[in-house]
Amino acid sequence: MDKSTLKVKAGLAQMLKGGVIMDVTNPEQAKIAEDAGAVSVMALERIPADIRAAGGVARMTDPEIILAIMDAVSIPVMAKARIGHFGEAQILEAIGIDYIDESEVLTPADEKYHINKWLFKVPFVCGAVNLGEALRRIGEGAAMIRTKGEAGTGDVVEAVRHMRNIRDDISRIAGLPPEELMTVAKEMGAPYDLVEYVHREKRLPVVNFSAGGISTPADAAMIMQLGADGVFVGSGIFKSENPSKMASAIVEATTHYQNPDVLARVSRGLGSAMAGIAVSGMPVEQKISGRGW
Amino acid sequence: MQGSVKVGILALQGDFKEHADTLKKCGAIPVEIRLPDQLKGVDGLIIPGGESTAIFKLIRKYGFERKLLEFNKSGRPIFGTCAGMILLASKIKNEGMGLGLIDIEVERNAYGRQIESFEHDIELCLDHKKEDRLFRSIFIRAPRIIRFGNSVKVMAEFDGQAVLAGNEKVMVCSFHPELTGDIRIHKKFIEMIKKLKMDKREN
After folding, report:
1. In whole angstroms, what is the distance from residue B28 CA to residue B178 CA?
2. Residue-level pLDDT at A96
3. A148 an active-site residue?
4. pTM for the complete prediction?
5. DSSP assignment of B136-194, as one string?
6. What count of other Cβ atoms lies within 10 Å of the Cβ of residue A261?
7. Are B114 and A7 in contact (CB < 8 Å)?
8. What 3-state DSSP class applies to A97?
9. Which chain B residues are Cβ-neighbours of A15 within 8 angstroms?
């Protein structure tokens, strides 16, 4: 019997496909998410919009909060560790978390290196803004990727940009003659064997969800049509007027992303979505999608 | 394609694309099913792996329950993997009823959290005799069959417990044959579909 193989780690992400992973800060919210049809919850002390507003150093959530959320639901529970902070990741593994998000939403602990994810039994999901970054993370052992978008803004524009980046990079590499792959790997800063994989299979070797700014059923449907395997909704649910209704509607939209009739039905009468902050015009130092190396 | 069967895959959530790829390798035509009306015109159905609570919620919302019972009653087989097995079971431990299309009681997440998920080579017994080759089976937060009735035939075991089983019209397994590239179990399901189709024609 072999535990914690890449197949088993990446396999859980495959089971989450076509689903919605929701940020929650307490057991009550976790129940609302599960009842609305979330496939997993991300256990957090504060949702990204509040992390943004609070400023200061954002760290791993208190294990007490995470454990209470794990007790409250039967779906898998994820939690965030800071970029490069293997100490936080070890603690999350010790409490039996199902997935670790090495996340740019928290304040990075290392400005040069990410966590060596091969050393862990628990699978990791990591953010990426383009194919090179995604393949570097997979090279380090990530079993799932999420495009970063711009967390806590409610503005989908960066999520779209990053999903298109990855899609365009994949189709470009798929069409190249083999002799060009090494140079592409060098330029992208990506492991050669993974560039070769993308060339051959025309897709990423692991599941890719979209994150950072999705806050309506229409956002979810659009990003799914752009090729996402599923979506993370952070602040979009519990910063909306009616979280339970919004959560159910985004779940249905993620399933029926190609069916405008269903999308029209679920979009009606949801109350207001999160207010949000437009990313356009946001000073570079306030953007968090640039964190990650 | 003449003679090939159309197999629906419940595509509400989960790894339905992996099942579609496996079916194509078997020469069958996969059809994604998201609303009950789409069940018309397919010869059998796969309920994939995914999160059973999320899938069950959508099944209820769209009124799939009654349609699936009719579908199966009319001689069209259903194959459930992992979450799909939980949904087809007659009883789910501590949670109540499943669709009841196969007389088994299952326990969700019976092997523990993700950290306990595993791969293992198991023996298959698809046609009343042991297969020569082992099957690499992948168990992810897997359910376990804790009781089964007389109508149920066991086709594989792990740790002394049934992990692949079926009756005349339903197949279930705890693990994920769609993640392995090994098409033997899907082929068995397609045989089941073809046989029931033939029986229907003869009657």
Report:
1. 14
2. 97
3. no
4. 0.96
5. EEEESS--EEEEE-TT-EEEEEETTEEEEEE-SSEEEESS-GGGTS--HHHHHHHHHHH
6. 9
7. no
8. coil
9. 14-15, 49-51, 82-83, 140-141
